[in-house]
Amino acid sequence: MLALGRSATPAHRRYVIRTMAFMAGYVAVNMAAIFGAFDDIASPVAAWALALTVSAPVAGQIWATLSLMNESDEFVRSLTAKQFILSAGIAMALFSAWGFGESYADAPHAPGWLIYPLFWGIYGLVSPFVKTSR
To answer: Is the pLDDT of residue 5 over 90?
Structure first.
């Protein structure tokens, strides 16, 4: 889906550019956090500002995908929507099951932000099997 070949539609090219832009910001903020740039945050307001800053590219990536659906032809729109919905449903079901495992079976805690990479991992697994818009 991130190929930028000659056969890519204008909507697909815009999707790739948006994805790269949002993920560059996401990687930059997280790399800064990994290397300790935010270790001395003492203010709850600053901590929440950081949390919202890190989550903004996630929202942007979701917007980029929804924009791809909106700007594409009916087949691509339907196929991408089906892949998106299946992936979201499976990710929510798995994450809910893990959460109940934490509550009832002493499973180790999984941070909530893991739902995002879980969703895209499942999207990558589901997409090759969703070949029809029906």
So the answer is: no
